[in-house]
Amino acid sequence: MAMNPIQFQPGLSMPEFFERYGTEAQCAAALEQTRWPNGFRCPRCESTTYSRVNRRHHTLFQCRACRHQTSLIAGTLMQGTKLPLATWFLAIHLISQAKTGLSSLALKRDLGVSYPTAWLIHHKVMEAMVEREARYVLDGQVQIDDAYLGGERSGGKAGRGSENKVPFVAAVSLNEA
Ligand SMILES: [Zn+2]
User: Fold this and answer.
1) 58 C-alpha to center of ligand 1: Å?
2) Residues 86-124: pLDDT tens digits?
């Protein structure tokens, strides 16, 4: 399955992180940009016209041509959870910035969630971090051409600015089931 990873700047400070990804709206916008860098495209019929349908937890995108509904988190590691996107983003940031790993217990404290929730998030993020497939930067500024992880590149030269990015999390599926 093709995936777009989300990446953060290395050494992004907590104030900087919260400035960029502190609100649900900011996280949704970042995810939307990652998922559809060239604008919405229906995963079923490829149409580009859509309406937004606001639901309790997440906004749905409804294709105007075939009426297929999809959400920003469909096909991502966040799929099926009711946690705020902001919680996921913070978790991803904390885990990816931790030099020596982060325990579920530390994550529980940092996120203010229950231990089982912290464990689940931890597990899913770590799982995604070993995905080597696709590449896209969260803020949309830099597109990476080659898959790489942990500084290791697989084939060829990576895209512009890749040296300044921490390899991150394959979070967004391009081929939604
Ligand atoms: Zn459609």
Assistant:
1) 19
2) 999 898 888 877 767 789 999 999 999 999 999 999 888
Residue of 166, 124, 126 lying closest to 149 (CA atoms): 166
pLDDT for residue 47: 95
Report if residue 66 sits inside a domain: no
Q: Is 68 inside a domain boundary?
A: no
**What distance separates the 2 farthest-apart alpha carbons in the chain?**
48
Task: Look at residue 104 and tell me if it is in a domain.
Answer: yes
Distance 36 CA to ligand 1 centre (A): 14
108 located within any domain: yes
pLDDT digits (tens, 9 = 90+) for 55-64: 877 789 999 9
Q: Is the pLDDT of residue 38 over 50?
A: yes
Using alpha carbons, select from 26, 30, 24 the residue that is nearest to residue 169: 30
Residue-number span of the structural domain to which 20 is assigned? 3-36+73-173
Q: How far is the CA of 66 from the centre of ligand 1 (A)?
A: 4
CA of 174 to the centre of ligand 1 (A): 15
CB of 69 within 8 A of CB of 54? no
For 70, the 3-state DSSP assignment is strand
Total domains in the chain come to 1
Q: What is the whole-number distance in angstroms between the Cα of residue 71 and the centre of ligand 1? A: 13
State the distance from the centre of ligand 1 to the C-alpha of 68, rounded, in angstroms.
5
